[in-house]
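ESCALATION

Customer reports they have been waiting on this structure for their group meeting. Please prioritize. Original submission:
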Amino acid sequence: MATLTLKFIPKSLQTKQVVSKMKNPTFAKKLPIRRSPKIFKKQDFCFMYENYPHLFNKDKPIPLKKGIIKDFYNVKNPNIKKHQALIYLREFFKYYTCRDEYLQAIMNETWRHDHLGNVCEEITQEHKAYAQAIINDKIKNKKKLKVVN
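Update from on-call: job pushed to the front of the queue and completed.
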């Protein structure tokens, strides 16, 4: 039986009781998932829409480069603390890239764009198929909700 080291357990859960239960193979209860609280609302994202209108258009979005959060994170802004900026960027891109309009843009366009608006990489067929699958799932879920109500 392999021993469990503490480096894989979050600091908040490193109590003797939790660690002893985790070492016990009969303990099947799942540990609580720690999710970050939803800090920002949709209207808080106007900063990105106002400062980067060439990238973020609510009506006609353009596909963004994979890993674009790193590009925005490295832009110097003295008014924003680094950890707040990272949380903000993650929340914004999670919201922006899950929208139906963005997924349609992934399916219809052929190129991705970087934070300056330059074309940087091609969209693969796998990404287009994945976007189509997400849209299909959303449509199915909407139909199920209408049938239930």
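Sent to customer with the following note: The chain has one domain: 42-148.
Escalation resolved.
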